[in-house]
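job 3f2a | input accepted
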Amino acid sequence: MRILAGASVALRRIVDIGLVVVVLVVLLAIGLARGAPLLGRQSIVIGGGSMEPTIGLGSAIVIHAVDPASLMVDDIVSMRVGPAQTTFTHRIVAVVDREDGRWIRTKGDANAAPDPTLVPASAVIGRVELIIPFAGYLLAVLSLPTGVMFVLGLAATLLAVAWLLESVEPEPRPIRRARETDQAAESGESGESGEAGEDREPRAAEPAAVRRAPKPASVARPTVREQLARSREVRNRRARWQADRGRRRPATE
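job 3f2a | predicted structure (253 res):
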């Protein structure tokens, strides 16, 4: 029984941790998707490995728009280039100032050579401020209706399992109340012993049938009916003991 109770408690802790993780993951996704624009930032999901190991595949980055004149070598920037305005993120390895403006040369950390053409600084949409590994997968999942339903179903399942485990966990025993009951019973025994000692009668003279029964091993609190029965038994035993004592006392003139 103890093993089963311990296993249910441990499983309940695991389920609680899973619920916390799900809540934190959802809050992170909401913060990246909705909170970043409110702060003047933008979140982008990295779909390639050209910037590994600095930015891994599936990472999410937060970028902030910057003045082209403030761009420097070693900055990691996101750009839109080409007729299709494709977005990619690379590191600046050179800054070239021309008569028609500032141009930059970029390179991926995982690439052996820099990008073949210069890119105008005006094509930069922002400098990378924050990198969150694997968060891009989360944004991709929550951008789909099926992904949202999956997360909601997972959270509901964990809640149901937590409720089920809580219903089968054993209730804690009232240790303090049981100790108070034992102390009260012991004090009652000592009080009866004191009353008997006042008449200086030996304990052995008491009939065996009326001796106090041994205290039960159970620590449960007695019911009202049991307490009344015990009180009635004590009064009857005391009356029989006094009657027996009166018969043994010698007659006086």
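job 3f2a | Helices lie at 2-38, 135-142, 145-168, 175-198, 224-248.
job 3f2a | closed
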